[in-house]
Design a protein that fits this description.
- Helices cover 33% and strands 13% of the residues.
- The chain is an alpha+beta fold.
- The chain has two domains: 51-75 and 155-276, Cytochrome c-like domain (Cytochrome Bc1 Complex, Chain D, domain 2), CATH 1.10.760; 79-148, Ribosomal protein L7/L12, C-terminal domain/Adaptor protein ClpS (Ribosomal Protein L30, Chain: A).
- Helix 8 crosses helix 9.
């Protein structure tokens, strides 16, 4: 072939460019990320998981939980609304800022200011554009309010206060994002469900609390023990939430079940930082230890 070397170089260049763009660049871009300091909480996010939770991640993977549950809160490109709440006292600077953000308002009347307040300035624009306008207006001494205009279905369901980003998974090896949702997303399960007993009962038989649930049972993660006459069940035995074991029997979780629940309770991706900022979202509180699971269950969807 007369042009064989050129053809070979063309194919090699294509493969090399694809490899550099799809493998090498993301490796250096994401591989160099480090935990981000959250000064308000005094932590470096994300926190490392406790030992039981790390063991529970292996149980989670071994039981195939990632085949039915995802760990990623999705959000389409964020749009925002911008409202003027207080024009301030520097009307000249305000008009100059409005001339950039809303030139139609200034062109209509060079002396009038938006009224009544709060007054909508921008609606369903990109978050970047709204943020730039907000900075100009606040530098002019005005007060504005920036609110999200399109909240994803995941956030409306209560599965998180913001989308998940690559930094949320720095401590996970391997990352178990999942692909199919036969059950709810678990990226923030530990933020909306704090009762370990409730999770243990779901693992033993999810239909106890939710008849018709497609979630499979995991009875082999528990041990059935006969009770001696007059002996009370052990403190770790399953109970409550409508569950009544057979007479003379107690159901006790095995270590694998406790480790799996510790992992589920550690799943929290609600800390706010610059690359995951969500207008109107409430910042996370300092996370409680994974073993502190005696608080009442939080409202919201459960797996």
């Amino acid at each position: 072939m007369k042009h064989g070397p050129l053809l070979f170089l063309g194919v090699l260049s294509t493969v090399l460019a694809s490899w550099l763009g799809a493998v090498v660049a993301p490796h250096f871009q994401i591989g160099n990320e480090e935990p981000v300091p959250i000064d308000e909480l005094g932590i470096n996010y994300p926190l490392d998981r406790p030992g039981d939770a790390k063991q529970g991640a292996r149980v989670y993977r071994a039981q195939g939980c990632n085949y039915c549950h995802t760990q990623q809160v999705r959000q389409e490109p964020l749009l925002a609304d911008l409202f003027l709440t207080d024009p301030g006292t520097n009307t000249t600077a305000l008009r100059a800022a409005l001339a950039v953000a809303r030139p139609d308002l200034v062109a209509a009347d060079a002396t009038a200011l938006p009224d009544p307040l709060p007054s909508p300035l921008l609606s369903h624009v990109s978050f970047t554009l709204a943020d730039q306008a907000m900075r100009r207006l606040t530098n002019a001494g005005a007060r504005v309010e920036l609110t999200p205009a399109n909240v994803s279905a995941d956030i409306r369901r209560g599965w998180g206060v913001r989308r998940t980003v690559a930094r949320d998974y720095l401590r996970d090896q391997p990352v178990m994002l999942g692909q199919v949702r036969f059950g709810p997303d678990l990226a923030n399960l530990g933020a909306r469900q704090t009762n370990a007993m409730r999770l243990l009962l779901k693992l033993y038989n999810a239909r106890i609390e939710m008849p018709g649930s497609p979630m499979p049972r995991y009875p082999y993660l528990f041990e059935e023990r006969k009770l001696r006459p007059g002996r009370a069940p052990s403190p770790e035995a399953l109970g409550g939430f409508g569950f009544n074991p057979p007479p003379g029997i107690e159901i006790v979780p095995r270590p694998e079940a406790l480790q799996l629940v510790a992992y589920l309770l550690s799943l929290k991706a609600d800390t706010l930082f610059y690359e995951a900022y969500m207008p109107g979202a409430k910042p996370a509180v300092i996370p409680a230890p994974a073993g502190d699971t005696n608080a009442p269950p939080a409202p919201g969807p459960t797996p």
